[in-house]
Amino acid sequence: MSTFISEFLIGGDGKRVAIKDSIDIAGHPTRSGSRAFVEAEPALRNADVVDAILDAGWQIVGKTNMHELAFGVTGINDWTGTPINPQAPDRVPGGSSSGSAAAVAAGLADIAIGTDTGGSVRVPAACCGIAGLKPTYGRVSRVGAHPAASSLDCVGPFAADMADLIAAMQVICPGFQVQGLPSGNASVGFLEVDCDPHLQACLGAAADCAGWRRSQLHLSDFEAAFAAGLTVINFENWAAFGHLTGKGLIGADVEQRLLAASRTSAADLAQAEKVRARFSQQVDAALEEFAVLLLPTMPSLPPTLIEARSASKAVAGMTPLVRPFNLSGHPALTVPVELEGSGLKVGLQIVGRKGQDELVCAFGAQLQQSMAGERSTPNKKS
Question: Which residue numbers delimit the Amidase domain (predicted)?
C-alpha cells in the first residue's frame, strides 16, 4: 500500500500523526510526491505545525503520499504509487492529500495533516469517509509548507471523529478554544448546488437529525468563484513549479496542467481577484443570516480508478463545491455521513464565518453526535 512515502517514529507517546509530504520535517526530504525532488536534501527545520505536534507530546508516524506537487484531485500518483481508499478500494482516494486521508481511514494514524488549496483536505476526507478541515485562511501557520507562497492554501487536519479533529486544532492552531455545542434548532443555510439527488437528500436528512432549521440559499457568484479559484491556483502554481516542465521530471497529468496554467495572464488574475472580493462578501452576508452554511462536499460519489484514468467528466466534477471557499478564505469542514443504500460515507460540508473555526467544529461535533444517537436508537424506523 502506498499510503506512506516514508514511515518513521519521532516524538512522544501521544496521538499518532501522519504528515503530508509537502510539509517539512527536519532530517527528512520534502519531495511533494514528485520525482523532480528525488535528490532533495533533508529539511533543516520542522514546519511550524510539526513543531506544535511534537511539543504536544504526540508521535509522528511518517510522511504521507500525495498527488504530485499537490496539483490534482484524484490522488493518483504513478511515481510513488496511489494510496488505496480504505472504504472503497476501487475508487480514488482523492487528492491532493491522498495518503493523509487514507492513513486515518485505515487506522494507521489517529490524525493526519494535509494542505488544502482547492479542496485537497476536504475531497480526500470525503472520498475516504472521514472528517477534514480547511481552516480560515491564515489561521494555521503555513511556514514549512510547500509551495511557500499561496493566497489560497491552508494547512488542516484529518481525523475519523470530531473529538480528534478538535484536539488537533487545539495543537496546531494558536488560540483555538473548544466551543460548546450550538443550541438546538440553529438556523443553517443549505446551498442550492448541482448534486446527486439521493446524496443531497441523505445530507439534508442528517442536518434535520441534528435538529437544525435549514433554509435553501443561493449564492449568485458560486460558479464564478469556482472558476476564479482555478485561475488563482494556475497563476500561483505556474510561478512555483513552471520551471519543472519540459524536463521529463513530472507526471504527464501534472505536466499538462502546468502547461495549461502557463497561459493564465495577469489580467486573468485581476479578474479573479474581483470575483474573490464579491464572493467573499456574499458568503459574509449569508453568514449574517445563518449560523453556518451547509452543502455537499462532493456532488457525487468519487470516481472509480478506471474512470479517473480515462479522464472522465467525473474527475472534473470532484471540486466544484469546495474550491469556492478557498477563494473566499472561510473555514470549511467536511463530516462523514452514511449514504443510505451504498455502504459508503459521503461528506457534508459546514462553512462558517472567518475566524470562527471553533463554531464550525462545534457544528461538526453536534452532527456526528446526532448521527451516533440515531444509529443507537433501538427499533428505529427507516
Answer: 17-173, 251-361
